[in-house]
Design brief:
This protein is α/β, with parallel strands linked by helices and 230 residues long. It has one domain: Aldolase class I (TIM Barrel, Alpha-Beta Barrel), CATH 3.20.20. Helix content is 40%, strand content 13%. Helix 1 packs parallel to helix 2.
Length: 230
């Protein structure tokens, strides 16, 4: 919940010029608040930067105050949508059942969902990391087309805390995630205190295909350095 429309457009004006030379096989996606999506869609048209939303409801329409449907997003040129982010699960009652419904809605509208999974500090300390994540995937991916999907491993204890999961450990867990998938080519990202000073090490890992970036994406310079990882 950052940046109004004016701030979003100012960000993009600076950011676009800094990511003109990203690799051909690389995608950069800005997942902005709903209020900024229309303005950003117009300014990103024809650029290498894709547009994402932060949530989607499973119904086409209805009495779901505060929610947004897939057709509302596709109408304004949205390409991606985040589903099941830990903050939605933690603060707004998101469950694996509703995550599955949102994933189905996204794919129905030909949006590419970014499914977030991850464990809490208590679960990790109890040695439950693998079981928690495998259970999430089993429930979340029921009847989901894995050819139109991105997964983000975001250890909840590392989000916004500055306590980044060791790159080798993130790589290990993402390898476990990949083992659970029918489509081994699904792009799997790491998310959790990703910063310019750790992105190169993160992206050097064999199983990690990308990064889901939070606080470090709020500055155009910072996010551009991440997009232009070495």
């Amino acid at each position: 919940m950052y940046k109004n429309q004016a701030e979003s457009l100012a960000f993009v004006q600076e950011f676009k010029s800094e990511v003109e030379d990203i690799k051909d096989n690389q995608e950069v996606v800005l997942c902005a608040p709903f209020t900024s999506l229309t303005a950003l869609s117009k300014h990103l048209h024809g650029s290498r930067i894709m547009l994402g939303a932060q949530n989607i409801h499973w119904s086409e329409e209805g009495a779901y105050t505060g929610e947004i449907s897939g057709s509302m997003l596709t109408e304004i040129g949205v390409d991606y949508v985040v589903v099941g982010h830990s903050e939605r699960r933690q603060y707004f009652g998101e469950t694996d059942k509703t995550v599955n419904l949102r994933l189905k809605a996204a794919q129905h509208h030909r949006l590419k969902p970014i499914l977030c999974v991850g464990e809490t500090k208590a679960q990790r300390d109890a040695g439950e990391t693998e079981n928690i994540i495998i259970a999430q995937l089993k429930s979340d991916l029921i009847d989901i087309n894995q050819s139109n999907l991105v997964i983000a491993y975001e250890p909840i204890w590392a989000i916004g805390t500055g306590d980044t999961c060791e790159s080798s450990e993130a790589n290990r867990v993402i390898g476990i995630i990949r083992e659970q998938l029918d489509n081994k080519n699904v792009s799997i990202q790491y998310g959790g205190s990703v910063k310019p000073d750790n992105i190169d090490e993160i992206m050097a890992q064999s199983e990690i295909d990308g990064a889901l970036v939070g606080g470090a994406s709020l500055s155009a310079d910072s996010f551009a350095r991440i997009a232009n990882y070495q």
